Amino acid sequence: MTSPLRLCVRRSPAPDARDAATLVTLRIPSDVDCIEEAVELVVRHCLAGHQTTRTTRFRLQVVLSEALSNAIMRGNCEDCRKWVDVRAELWVDAIRLYVTDEGPGFDPAAVPDPVTPEQLDVAGGRGLYLIRKLVDAVQFNEQGNSICMTLRRR
Length: 154
What we know:
Blueprint: E1 10-13, E2 22-29, H1 35-47, H2 54-75, E3 83-90, E4 94-100, H3 126-134, E5 137-140, E6 146-152
Antiparallel strand pairs: 1-2, 2-3, 3-4, 4-6, 5-6
């Protein structure tokens, strides 16, 4: 039996992100059992010192969970030798989250809309659909192995 994994968030001033007050970073192994703890830690640090609505907290938890799940299961194919990096830039009026895996990437435009009648019974695409509905902006890097999600503080 192995001991439980302990994750540690690094919280620092953000000298490389203009106007961002704080930078929160975390690296987790490609293990779905780490998602819950990672989400809890990152959300706690992202919301510290800010009065936040329950809706914003909920949205942050859901999109981070979905992005981590996709990175671990689809990007890294649950390969325990690969890692997922989380970077949160904390702004006065917004949170910008980056989730990056070590996989080959994908074309987000090629993911079908999961709510069309022909896709309702097909697994896949629902996490990305939720992310797009719950954040204010979504971008992907050219390779398709990193998502950037912007959530305005409300």
